Amino acid sequence: MKTFFLPDCRMSAGYEIGARGKGKERGIESYWTALDMLMAMAQPRFRRRNAQGKFGTVTCQPGDVEDVSRSFIELERAKHGG
Distance between CA atoms of 9 and 6, rounded to whole angstroms? Predict the structure, then answer.
């Protein structure tokens, strides 16, 4: 099962990307900036909601990328902000 980095991953302070821990995880306000930063990481990590609605960290494996249309992302941004 794939986990996508979409606008619904937004937390109250923005998108949390990077490894967990003090000074490693960063809050990014803009979805597009956060996506660019994730794409540049050797092992992208971000927080998203789990089945219980709580935010947890997802670690992507190298090459685990799939294109999603910009129009779909823009519709999601309209619903979730970012």
Answer: 6
